[in-house]
Automatic annotation (TrEMBL):
Domain of life, source organism: Bacteria
Origin species: Halomonas litopenaei
Pathway in which this enzyme or protein is active: Cofactor biosynthesis; adenosylcobalamin biosynthesis
Keyword Transmembrane helix: no
Alphabetical list of NCBIfam families matching this protein: L_thr_O3P_dcar
Short name of one Pfam family: Aminotran_1_2
The protein, known as: threonine-phosphate decarboxylase
Aminotransferase class I/classII large domain sequence ranges: 69-374
Amino acid sequence: MTSTHNQHLNDTSASQTPTQGQGSCWPDHGGQGAALLDRLGLSSVTPTMDVSASLNPLGPPVWLSDWLARAMSDVRHYPDPEHRDAVAALAASLGIAPPSVVLTNGGAEAIHLVARAYRRTRALIIEPTFGEYARACRLNDIEIECLQLSGDDFRLDVEALSARLAAVDLVFVCRPNNPTGTRLPRSDVEALVAAARRSDTLVVIDEAFVDFADDEAPLTDLVEQGEPLVLLRSLTKFYALAGLRLGYLVASPQRCRALQHHQVAWSVNGLAAAVVPELLADSDFARRTRDWLYSERAYLTAGLRDLGLTVVDSLANFVLFRPPGQASQANGEALLAYLARHGCLARHTHTFSGLDGAWIRVALQRRADNDRLLRWLGDGLESLPEQGDAPSRGEHR
Ligand SMILES: Cc1ncc(COP(=O)(O)O)c(C=O)c1O
């Protein structure tokens, strides 16, 4: 490719990115360490810990590399376009019929399939939330309306939401929500779906982090009852397979067929599809993950509150917090930069509506790394020039 072509491509992608900072752009997602360091003017720092992408630190399962090595002999073949074995395993794990499941290239592809099927319509997005809903809508000429969560506990006014359904064709609900970790109660989901039925609106519930959430009756029964509902799932986070890419969606068989119509042939690679039954059969990995999660989520949340930070109660494998007081935005940015200078990459919140850099999201790690993170944050807080009206340590416990 000529340098002119390169220049053209670079220019195009830069102009499409909505998150321009003073120098380079704030990266749109976690796990983009080089871009984050570049934006902070810290390109020379060598990262030692990445808490910006919410991946299970116990994964991928230890058997995966041997399994992949053996499976390499199959890479010369096209995968089954229907991914029957993977779909059957997922359907059995959920207790639903296989025609209600579509395997996707990560949860991200599932989001884009819905948006493609709803091209040139109107969507409601509840902010702050995962940025890919808005991006998928923009790419498909879908008009976007927004509803903002309120307060430091990010409450959703379900009545206000239901009242706005008549004006849109679909609504995206992230549950538990990225980046807050909060979850709309099932009773509110039922009320929302009932209102959506009346206004002929599709409810899209992104459950990418559902495997980390405390047990609750799954929403698959609502799909089976024929409600206007699509559930989006990811195996990427729980099994730490961000590079392999695996997700799926659950909907009525008719809706699944309509969504599959927009899917690129073989969008899920053969290795990823073939490993699905093996992953689901590893109950020991799932049990160890839940044991780790319940212990470390409580530990890190308490540790952050001990430091005087304002922390959102999370049902996911990440926690959102901010320095309290009027200087929280400046202090949030200073803390993010302090962590980065020490090689710790946290998730900035400049790309989340209403959070504006004051808040920081961190993914739970194993105990030793959670302790390291708490120490850095403690030291970082002490080094802040302006602590606003931050309470003293321990006051929030
Ligand atoms: C809420 C949510 N949905 C979907 C995704 C995409 O997941 P995947 O990596 O499986 O495409 C993410 C990734 O961060 C996410 O946060």
